[in-house]
Specification:
The chain is an alpha/beta fold and about 550 residues long. It has 3 domains: about 1-125, PAS domain (Beta-Lactamase, 2-Layer Sandwich); about 135-285, 2-Layer Sandwich (Alpha-Beta Plaits); about 310-550, TIM Barrel (Alpha-Beta Barrel), CATH 3.20.20.450. About 45% of the residues lie in helices and about 25% in strands. The strands form 4 sheets. The protein has an 8-stranded mixed β-barrel with strand order 13-14-16-17-18-19-20-21, surrounded by 5 helices. Strands 2-1-5-4-3 form a 5-stranded antiparallel β-sheet. It has a 5-stranded mixed β-sheet with strand order 7-8-6-11-12, sandwiched between helices. Strand 7 (about 200-205) and strand 8 form a beta hairpin. Helix 7 (about 165-175) packs across helix 8 and helix 8 (about 175-195) runs antiparallel to helix 9. The structure holds ligand C2E and magnesium ion (MG) (2 copies). One magnesium ion (MG) binds near residues 390, 422 and 452.
């Protein structure tokens, strides 16, 4: 038996015991005998289960064991069964002493009286149990003190908030234990990047903070770059190697703020900005960013209420055959009727909806609406036309996308022939094989697929030939410049020739003038969509166009 351990146990005021790797009791001290009502010889060699009351079931014990393994310790309240059969609640901490030549593996410390429980509580709220770093509470105290001192000696201070990029994915994919180990290692790397005079803390979750006195802006850049680099080194844990990047938001005292709350708020918004820009970077706070962030927040919360209050509308824009001037299709385009701002363009809110994930709700609502409306027009006896609906990248990547489209077709009763989905090249570029499979599944439903805004994305021609699409839509940027730029004319001509070569239908967007129409017609692009014929209009107006088409063979003039 390790003499040091023995001495510690004998001298300790708290009840303690040493336990081996198989949870067998090796030694207990005097206070333990008093607390537990057992003599040493009655418990040594026995299993620790002897001491636990029946109220602790298997799950409790398993969870405790798991934590001891993962975090090298455990602390919590436990029902102890005394030698006289009585049970009482007591706080226990278990420390893993690590494997060694000695048989003693775990040290159990019982915290009996209120004072030690209180001391423990304070310790726990000051030090993060997982990483050993100060907690948020202590950190805020320290910022306060540091700012007071800095004010007196007229020094500057930088606050760095550090978040791991997409950390929840690591937790989901590799488990919480793995995540915890990453967190511990991150804390260690963070410490290695800062000076003794700096303070690091874990504010919660995957959010860390460093506060460092600086003499110039460069000082904070140096720390930030060191941290980014250090965290991006692979984490080698349990035979896996994982690369995790981080983002850092930086605010400066006294330039940005002269009180702790504002300083933290600004570093938080800088961090958010860094993450939105893709992560793996640091970002200084600036005021303009703040007003942009505020606008963004307003937009986001506006979008949430817009969904619950059903403030969205679908407009329809005809696709017209330039030779016959009949309506051959339509595109459904969402609008947001905001009670304060009026009609908001999708260009403004779709990106925010993408980022927050609200796009799924909006997107499927539009799809449902467009299919139901189209079916209704057909039932009214109007000329049947196909409706095209835009799909956002996030929506397309959802696992159950094909199922949801299938369900909507079933619910609305619209024939699949009358639905087209508009995709963009960039959303198809990630996992090409998987995306092609998904497109084939959509085609199997009987619907058509088009590539929207063609010419603005990667335009990887070799992939284009493999995509099971039916239609290319030339981006309106090319159509717009047809009268002014000879290179644009060449590009438009090439895109039309390409679609003919690949046997794809071609639609030109944004045709506004007679000149555009003439050019497109003479180059074999028969279908156009643009203000020349009609802007996107509310359903009631589109219905009138369809009715006129029915009556006169053409929808206008
Ligand atoms: P898009 O899919 O390329 O839609 C065509 C856009 O071009 C529409 O803008 C339409 O109003 C506009 N446009 C049509 N003809 C002309 C023209 O002759 N001249 C000019 N200058 N513009 C013309 P809108 O409705 O503002 O939509 C903008 C974008 O928002 C759409 O571009 C699409 O990417 C997105 N979007 C709209 N509705 C939805 C939706 O329901 N879901 C998703 N995911 N995105 C949508
Ligand atoms: Mg579109
Ligand atoms: Mg487009």
């Amino acid at each position: 038996m390790d003499e040091t351990l023995k001495t510690i146990l004998e001298a300790a005021g708290n009840a303690m015991m040493l336990v081996d790797a198989g949870r067998r009791i090796i030694m207990v001290n005097r206070p333990f005998e008093k607390l537990a009502g057992f003599r040493a010889e009655e418990v040594v060699g026995r299993d620790t289960a002897l001491l636990s009351a029946d109220c602790h079931d298997q799950t409790f014990c398993a969870a405790m064991d798991e934590k001891i393994v993962a975090e090298k310790g455990w602390m919590g309240d436990l029902r102890l069964r005394r030698g006289d059969g009585e049970t009482r609640t007591i706080r226990l901490s278990v420390k893993d002493l690590g494997p060694g030549p000695e048989s003693a593996r775990y040290l159990y410390i019982y915290h009996d009286d209120r004072t030690s429980a209180e001391a423990l509580r304070i310790h726990q709220s000051n030090i993060d149990g997982l990483t050993g770093l100060p907690t948020a509470q202590i950190f805020r105290d320290r910022i306060n003190q540091i700012l007071i001192t800095s004010r007196r000696i007229e020094k500057s201070v930088a606050l760095l908030l550090i978040g791991l990029d997409r950390f929840s994915r690591i937790n989901d994919a590799l488990g919480r234990n793995f995540g915890n180990l990453v967190m511990k290692e991150t804390a260690a790397r963070l410490i290695s990047c800062i000076r003794r005079s700096d303070t690091a803390a874990r504010l919660g979750g995957d959010l860390f903070a460093v506060i460092t006195p600086i003499t110039s802006l460069d000082d904070s850049v140096i720390v930030a770059e060191k941290v980014l680099k250090s965290i991006s080194r692979p984490f080698e844990i349990d035979n896996s190697s994982v690369v995790i990047t981080s983002s850092i938001g930086i605010s400066l005292y006294p330039t940005d703020a002269d009180d702790p709350e504002n300083l933290e708020e600004q570093a938080t918004s800088a961090l958010g900005y860094a993450k939105r820009r893709g992560g793996d970077r640091y970002q200084f706070f600036d005021n303009e960013m703040n007003s942009r962030a505020k606008k963004r927040l307003e937009l986001e919360s506006g979008l949430r209420t817009a969904i619950s209050r059903q403030e969205f509308l679908v407009y329809y824009q005809p696709k017209v055959n330039v030779l016959t001037e009949t309506i051959v299709g339509m595109e459904a385009l969402v609008r947001w009727q905001d009670p304060v701002r009026g009609l908001v363009s999708p260009a403004e809110f779709i990106p925010a909806a993408e980022e927050t994930g609200l796009i799924n709700q909006i997107g499927y609502w539009v799809l449902h609406q467009a299919c139901a409306q189209n079916k209704k027009w057909q039932e009214q006896g109007l000329t049947p036309v196909r409706v095209a609906v835009n799909v956002s990248s996030r929506q397309f990547l959802e696992k159950d996308m094909v199922d949801r489209v299938r369900t909507i077709l079933r619910e609305t009763g619209l024939g699949p022939d009358f639905l087209e989905l508009e995709l963009t090249e960039s959303m198809l570029m990630g996992d090409i094989e998987k995306n092609i499979t998904k497109m084939l599944e959509l085609r199997d439903l009987g619907i058509r697929l088009s590539i929207d805004d063609f010419g603005t994305g990667y335009s990887s021609l070799s992939y284009l030939a493999r995509f099971p699409i039916t239609t290319l839509k030339i981006d309106r940027a090319f159509v717009k410049d047809l009268g002014t730029s000879t290179s644009t004319v060449e590009i438009a001509r090439a895109i039309i020739a390409l679609s003919q070569g690949l046997k794809l239908e071609i639609v030109a967007e944004g045709a506004e003038t007679q000149h555009h129409i003439d050019f497109l017609k003479s180059h074999g692009c028969d279908t156009v969509q643009g203000f020349f014929y009609s802007p996107p209009v509310p359903a009631a107006n589109f219905e009138k166009l369809l009715a006129a088409l029915q009556l006169h063979g053409v929808a206008w003039r």
